[in-house]
Amino acid sequence: MITTVVTAPISGQKPGTSGLRKKTRVFMGRHYLENFVQSVFDVVDAAGKTFVLGGDGRYFNDRAAQVILRMAAANGASRVIVGQGALLSTPAASHLIRLNKTDGGLILSASHNPGGPDEDFGIKFNMPNGGPAPEAVTEAIFRRTMEIAEYRILEAEDVDLSRPGRSRLGGMQVDVVDPVADYAALMESLFDFAAIRALFASGFRMRMDSMCAVTGPYAKEILENRLGAAPGTVANAVPLPDFGGMHPDPNPTWAHALMAEMSGPDAPDFGAASDGDGDRNMVVGRGIYVSPSDSLAVLAANAHLAPGYRAGLKGVARSMPTSAAADRVAESLGIAQYETPTGWKFFGNLLDAGRATLCGEESFGTGSDHVREKDGLWAVLLWLNILAVRRESVAQILAAHFARFGRNYYSRHDFEAIDSARAEALFAALRAALPGLKGRSFAGLTVEAADDFAYSDPVDGSVSEGQGIRILFGKGARAVFRLSGTGTEGATLRLYLERYAAGPEGLDEDPQQALAPVIRAAHEIADIAGHTGRSAPDVVT
Ligand code: G6P
Ligand code: ZN
C-alpha cells in the first residue's frame, strides 16, 4: 500500500561539498529525510530505475535505509541493491553503481564527522558513473526541496538486511549483497596480491586503524584474510553506530592512537587509517608521517609498479589547496596535470574523459579511475604494492622522492567552529585587499600574485568561482585560505601552507619550522587573530 504524505518544504536542505549533512536529530525530525529523498527521486525520476543503497553504519543508518527502500518502492524504482546490514563504504558503493550499470545510488554518511544521536548524519546521491552528483543536479534537488508538497512511501515491514539474498518490496526487487566481495575482487584485479602476501610473509608488520567505522570488514577480509597480515592487524575493526566515540577522521590529530604507535618503540613498518565511510586515508611509516600531498606524489611516481597501472598514467589531478608535489611528478612523466577546486566531484569529468588516472586532495583523499570516489583502502593497497616491490621503508621511499623532485613542505591549519559572521568578515576583508597585495611584503615574503581561485572544467566548460584565496609568494611558497564546506557547526577556516625546497640541502626540516615565514605572513595578511580571536589552530595536518 502506497501512502502519499502531505509535507511542506524544510529550509536548509542544500547539499554542501559532499551531500546533505546535518545533526542526526535534524535528520530524524518529522519529514526531514523523506523530503530530501523524495526530492532526489523527483529529480532523477525514480520510476523504473535501479539504485545502490548503503552507508557507513553510523547511528540512524539502519532506520534511514528502511525508509529509503520503502520510498524507492513507492516511487516505482524497479530494483535496489543494498549492502548487508545497510553497510557500504563510499568507494564500494561507487563500484557497485558502476559494476551493475545502475542509475545511481544513495550513500548514507557524514564521512569523517562523528556519529551518534547528538552528532552528524548525511546523505548523498551518486550518479550512474559512480561519482557524486554534480552541482547542476544537487542544485535541482535543493530547488525541489523548496517546493515539495508530498512524498510517497510504501507501508510495509522492514526488509531483512541481515543476510544476502533477493526479496520483493511492493513492486520492487531488493538485492541484499555482501558489501565486501565485489570491492575485494576489484582490488585484487588492480594490485599484485602475491607480492604483498610475500611481503607480509617476510615479517612485514602493519597497523590499520579502521576507527570503528566502515572499513573494518573490508580491511579484515583484504589485509588479514587475503593478504596474510597478522590477525589483529586491523584495529577498531567493528563498525559501531557512534564509532566507539571516536572522531573517524584519519589525520594526526584524530588518529592519535595510530600516530603514537607508529612513533613508539615497537612501531610496525607501516600504518594507515581511514574515515567513517572509507574514502579517506592517512598513511604513516615507522616514525614518519606522510602528508596527503606527498602521498599523492609518491603514488603517482610509483603507480606503474602495480599491475592495474602498469601501462602508465594518463594524467594526475589534484585540488588547488593540495601541494604541487604531484605536478612535479606529472611533469617528469610527461603527462597532463590538473588543478581543480576542492571536492572530489570535480575529478569526475577528468576521470570519465580519460584525462586523469590518479587524483588526490590534501584532505586525505586519494583515488583513481577504478571508481568515481576517493578510496582509502585502495591508497593503502597501492602503498603496500609499492613497498612490496621496492622493499624499502616508507622513510627511504620519501627521502628518495624528495631527493629526486625536491620537497613541497606542506601543512594545513584549521580554525574550527568560529562564528560564521566573523569568518565571513575575514573573507570579505581578504577579498577586498586582493587587488592591492601584489608587491607588498609580509613577514619577509613578497606577494607575487593573489587571486580567488576559479576553475573552468576542460571537459564541459563549466566555471566554478570563489574556490579559495591564493596568495603566491614565488618560488613555490604560498598560503591559501578557504572555508570548509563540510562542517555542521559555525565556520571552519582552513589555512593551507606550502613552501618548495629544491634540495639537495634543506630537505629534512620539520614542516612547521620550514613553513614558519609563510605562516607568519598568512596571519598578517588575513589578520586571523583580529577577526576570529584565535591565534593557534585547532587541527594541524
Ligand atoms: C569532502 C570531499 C572532499 C573534499 C573535502 C573538503 O571530504 O569529499 O573531496 O576535499 O570534503 O572538505 P572541507 O571541509 O575542506 O570543505
Ligand atoms: Zn569520507
From TrEMBL:
<dbReference type="InterPro" id="IPR036900">
    <property type="entry name" value="A-D-PHexomutase_C_sf"/>
</dbReference>
<keyword id="KW-0597">Phosphoprotein</keyword>
<dbReference type="Pfam" id="PF02879">
    <property type="entry name" value="PGM_PMM_II"/>
</dbReference>
<keyword id="KW-0413">Isomerase</keyword>
<dbReference type="GO" id="GO:0005829">
    <property type="term" value="C:cytosol"/>
</dbReference>
<dbReference type="InterPro" id="IPR005844">
    <property type="entry name" value="A-D-PHexomutase_a/b/a-I"/>
</dbReference>
<dbReference type="InterPro" id="IPR005841">
    <property type="entry name" value="Alpha-D-phosphohexomutase_SF"/>
</dbReference>
<dbReference type="GO" id="GO:0000287">
    <property type="term" value="F:magnesium ion binding"/>
</dbReference>
<comment type="similarity">
    <text>Belongs to the phosphohexose mutase family.</text>
</comment>
<protein>
    <recommendedName>
        <fullName>phosphoglucomutase (alpha-D-glucose-1,6-bisphosphate-dependent)</fullName>
        <ecNumber>5.4.2.2</ecNumber>
    </recommendedName>
</protein>
<dbReference type="GO" id="GO:0004614">
    <property type="term" value="F:phosphoglucomutase activity"/>
</dbReference>
<keyword id="KW-0460">Magnesium</keyword>
<dbReference type="InterPro" id="IPR005846">
    <property type="entry name" value="A-D-PHexomutase_a/b/a-III"/>
</dbReference>
<dbReference type="InterPro" id="IPR016066">
    <property type="entry name" value="A-D-PHexomutase_CS"/>
</dbReference>
<feature type="domain" description="Alpha-D-phosphohexomutase alpha/beta/alpha">
    <location>
        <begin position="293"/>
        <end position="405"/>
    </location>
</feature>
<dbReference type="InterPro" id="IPR045244">
    <property type="entry name" value="PGM"/>
</dbReference>
<keyword id="KW-0479">Metal-binding</keyword>
<dbReference type="GO" id="GO:0005975">
    <property type="term" value="P:carbohydrate metabolic process"/>
</dbReference>
<dbReference type="Pfam" id="PF24947">
    <property type="entry name" value="PGM1_C_vert_fung"/>
</dbReference>
<dbReference type="InterPro" id="IPR005845">
    <property type="entry name" value="A-D-PHexomutase_a/b/a-II"/>
</dbReference>
<dbReference type="InterPro" id="IPR016055">
    <property type="entry name" value="A-D-PHexomutase_a/b/a-I/II/III"/>
</dbReference>
<dbReference type="Pfam" id="PF02880">
    <property type="entry name" value="PGM_PMM_III"/>
</dbReference>
<feature type="domain" description="Alpha-D-phosphohexomutase alpha/beta/alpha">
    <location>
        <begin position="182"/>
        <end position="284"/>
    </location>
</feature>
<feature type="domain" description="Alpha-D-phosphohexomutase alpha/beta/alpha">
    <location>
        <begin position="13"/>
        <end position="151"/>
    </location>
</feature>
<dbReference type="Pfam" id="PF02878">
    <property type="entry name" value="PGM_PMM_I"/>
</dbReference>
